[in-house]
Design a protein that fits this description.
Blueprint (H helix, E strand, L loop, with lengths): L6 H17 L4 E5 L9 E5 L8 E7 L2 E8 L8 E10 L6 E7 L4 E7 L7 E7 L4 E7 L4 E4 L2 E2 L9 E9 L5 E12 L1
Antiparallel strand pairs: 1-13, 2-5, 3-4, 4-13, 5-12, 6-9, 6-13, 7-8, 7-12, 8-10, 10-11
Length: 186
C-alpha cells in the first residue's frame, strides 16, 4: 500500500509537530549538588534570628548537598532553614518541583518565593523515608504562609521563582540530616 501526500499535508504535519514541541517545556535544573556549583550560595537562616538556639549547616559531601543540624525549642525556637536565590522565569510552563534526595524519615517543608523580598513563602511539606527517593511537589499545591500561618490568598500561580528554601520545624528537639542530589522544575 502506497501513500501519497501533498506538499500542503506535509507542511501542515511539520507545523503541528513544531507547535507541539515548542509547548513542551524541557526540565529546568534549579540546582545540581553533584557538580561544581557553589554550595556556599545556600544561606542558613535558623531560629537564632528570633532568639532560638537551633543550629544547622549546608555542606557538600560525596557529591551530595547535606543540610544537617539540630532543632532546639529552647528560647521559643524550633526551626532550621537553608535558602538559595535562583531567579527562574517562565515558570508557568512547569507543573512540579522534583527533589532527588535521601532523607532521614523526618518531615520537611520546601518553600518557594516569587520575589525573594516577600515576607511570605509558598510552602509544601513532605515526609522522607530515610532512603534515596524522588519527591514530586506540584506547584499548584504550594500554599502561601507567613510564620507558619496560612494566608488568605491563592496557591502558587506565579511566573517566577526567585528563591527556594528547605526548612525543618516539627515543634520538637531533634537532630536532622537530609542529602540533596538535584532540584528540578518539570
Amino acid at each position: 500500500m502506497m501513500f501519497i501526500y501533498s506538499k500542503a499535508q506535509i507542511m501542515k504535519s511539520i507545523l503541528y509537530t513544531f507547535l507541539f514541541m515548542s509547548q513542551v517545556q524541557q526540565p529546568y535544573l534549579v540546582f545540581n549538588f553533584n557538580t561544581a556549583e557553589n554550595i556556599n550560595s545556600w544561606r542558613i537562616v535558623n531560629d537564632d534570628v528570633m532568639g532560638g538556639k537551633s543550629k544547622s549547616k549546608m555542606s557538600l559531601k560525596d557529591n551530595m548537598g547535606v543540610f544537617e543540624g539540630e532543632v532546639s525549642l529552647e528560647n521559643n525556637g524550633g526551626f532550621a532553614m537553608t535558602q538559595f536565590d535562583c531567579k527562574v522565569s517562565n515558570v508557568k510552563g512547569f507543573e512540579k518541583i522534583v527533589l532527588d534526595i535521601k532523607g532521614d524519615g523526618k518531615v520537611y517543608q520546601f518553600r518557594i518565593k516569587e520575589n525573594q523580598y516577600n515576607i511570605y513563602s509558598y510552602v509544601q511539606s513532605f515526609k522522607t523515608t530515610g532512603k534515596d527517593e524522588i519527591i514530586e511537589l506540584y506547584l499548584k499545591d504550594f500554599v502561601p504562609q507567613f510564620r507558619g500561618v496560612k494566608l488568605n490568598s491563592p496557591n502558587f500561580d506565579k511566573n517566577t521563582i526567585e528563591q527556594v528554601s528547605l526548612l525543618i520545624g516539627d515543634k520538637r528537639n531533634e537532630k536532622f540530616r537530609i542529602q540533596l542530589n538535584k532540584i528540578t522544575l518539570k
